[in-house]
Specification:
Layout: E1 8-13, H1 20-33, E2 40-46, H2 51-57, E3 63-67, H3 84-90, E4 94-97, H4 100-104, H5 109-122, E5 125-130, H6 134-138, H7 142-153, H8 159-162, E6 166-169, H9 174-181, E7 186-201, E8 208-209, H10 211-219, E9 236-237, H11 245-255, H12 272-281, E10 288-293, H13 294-300, E11 306-308, E12 310-311, H14 318-322, E13 329-336, H15 345-352, H16 356-364, E14 368-369, E15 377-379
Parallel strand pairs: 1-2, 2-3, 3-4, 4-5, 5-6, 8-12, 9-10
Antiparallel strand pairs: 7-10, 7-11, 7-13, 7-14, 7-15
Helix pairs in contact: 1-2
Length: 380
Amino acid sequence: MNRKYRKTVIAGNWKMNKTPSETKEFMTQLKAILPKGRWCDVALCVPAVCIPAAVRAMRETRVGIGAENCNANASGAYTGEIATNMLVDAGCKYVIIGHSERRAMGETDADVNAKVLAALEAGLIPILCCGESLEQREAGITEEWITMQIKSALQNVPEEKIRKLIIAYEAPESVKEELKADGDPLEQKAIGRDALVFIVNEDNPVQSLTLQQLKDIYAGTITNWKDVGGKDQEIVAFQRGEDSGSQTLFKKLLIQGGELMTPPSELAPAAMGELVDSIADYNNSANAIGFSVYYYIDQMYSKPGLRLLAVDGVTPSNDTLADGSYPLCNDFYAVIHPDAAADSPERRLYDWLDTDAGQDCIKKAGYVAVGPQTTVTIVD
């Protein structure tokens, strides 16, 4: 990249994590390790309730605060929505638009376009997200799909304003594998852990399922709870939409290329919260089973009357995830170039993640910390 013509931007999306008080504490820790160089812009996009705390904490730094979503309308009867002028007045500089998780909830290309126009009109810098699913990538339509997304999002945007927005590509899981295949060296280490978990109604007598039983349920070869030690009732197996992160994790950790039945639309809700609600509120809720990720059920959203299933006799918990005994754990990693200098921003952040403060940050984000990693892997 020629920085004479392009500005490097490092942006982080907090998703639905941290309270305002936790935001203030985290920003204090972050300011202590921020490099003084100005070779890039830094953006942190936080939940709406955390925007004032983030703006106050970063007022005298070069970190710009952004929102994770906006409404295209300036005002009106849109309960729960936030207009772009409200974000500007709160001190925001950026706003994320078109994130894959929002698209999975039903946000259309037309919605994205309207939000981009509204954000630019208000003086915000839109961070326009685009990207293909793994299935679209494997079908060879990546370029066509992303071109369509960008063209739709930028419809009626004046040429002079296009340079005022950021296009952020959200890569599917396969990109890292492609980098490995291309021979690009990567240094990585696990910094935290999550897991795929299965939820049932507390009235369901089945306490544990094996990995094979779960595969057979979702392949449609086991259809009655009596076949796995339960009552003589039909199994109602919920899934998520194809583009959701939990569905991708489900396929990666459990299905692994095996058979997977296609659920009717009413059993494949777009949002994770809808899946949890559906299992809790389903007419024959004791029949239902679904999946989520551990941090979501443990930290973000659950409902009375639900419980986690043990898998191969191990119940998911902070302890069983930390020691790896739960069989459907999923590590997430920090990855840098192995030649990164010791005093470079990326190396300092990479090392900080192993400190008590870094691991505490991971815990506060809702994940299970894995402790300082003394072994790193050079992937080439």
